[in-house]
Amino acid sequence: MKVIIMGCGRVGEELCRIMLDGGHEVAIVDYDQAALDRLGPHFRGRKVLGVGFDRDVLLQAGIEQADAFAATSSSDNANIIAARIARDIFHVPRVVARLFDPRRAEIYRRLGLVTVSSTAWGAERIHELLVHGELDPVMAFGSGEVSLLRIEAPPHLAGRLVRDLTVPGEISVVTIVRDGQARLPALGAELRGNDILFLAVLASAMERVESLLGVGEAI
After folding, report:
1. Residues of the chain whose pLDDT is less than 50?
2. Residue 142 in domain
3. What residue ranges in the chain does DSSP mark as E strands?
4. What CATH number is given to the structural domain containing 208?
5. Which of 27, 39, 150, 180 is least enclosed by beta carbons within 10 angstroms?
6. 46 by DSSP, 3-state: which?
7. How many separate domains does the chain show?
8. Sheet containing 146-152: which strands, arranged edge to edge?
9. By residue range, what is the domain housing residue 33?
10. 165, 178 in Cβ contact below 8 A?
11. What are the pLDDT digits (tens) for 53-90?
């Protein structure tokens, strides 16, 4: 995959390294030469100096051949402008913009832009750790409305069925890992004490999960 990342701050730099480690071809754009220099002499991607929503700069980065574009700068406005240019003018198939102000997320979602609000996600993650510390969220979706939880099945669940942990629209058992092998469970699948469960859970249903598992204040 050919990827362009606009913004060489902490997020952009880390995303760049993750993509490169995954075998992708990456170009990173920033107007600050010092930011690009921090990538070091052994950086395996392309460094492009310039404003990330300037047409000539994007062309230099190879946007006409890009499969994906991520706007990760520290400016919400710059990120949205760059994302719209990448999507609407250059028709990049996958475009994601980072936002600091979660109040803008819904507005841009209506425009068809995929956004990630680090502020909203971070607040939701801290809330989960404070209030639901026994659970282990490994991923959040949207602005934190749905979480993926990793749970070691407690002994009392042995012999119970997947349907006993399933609440339509609130809780779904996505995957069971048993003896190192993952499987997609049917509702009638039986649970075992050593199972690792991955649950997709609505944020408002976290207390219900605790009650079903027998942990937290709902015991």
Report:
1. 133, 217-219
2. yes
3. 2-6, 25-30, 46-49, 68-71, 94-99, 114-117, 137-141, 146-152, 171-178, 181-183, 196-202
4. 3.30.70.1450
5. 180
6. strand
7. 2
8. 137-141, 146-152, 196-202, 171-178, 181-183
9. 2-117
10. no
11. 999 999 999 999 999 999 999 898 899 999 999 999 99
Q: Is residue 168 part of a domain?
A: yes
C-alpha closest to that of 136 among 25, 60, 210? 210
For residues 145 and 131, give the distance between their C-alpha atoms in angstroms, rounded to a whole number: 16
Q: Which residues contact 93 (CB under 8 A, 6 or more apart)?
A: 67, 68
Structure tokens at 14: 């880390």
Residue 126 falls inside a structural domain: no
Same domain for 38 and 105, yes or no, is: yes
Farthest-apart Cα atoms in the chain, separation: 62
Short-list 210, 205, 199, CA closest to 176: 199
Quote the DSSP letter at residue 161. Answer: B
Residue 219: its pLDDT value, please?
35
The domain boundary, picked from 117, 145, 179, lies at 117
Same domain membership, residue 159 and residue 62: no
Residue 165: strand, helix, or coil: helix
Does residue 31 contact residue 52 with C-beta atoms inside 8 Å?
A: yes
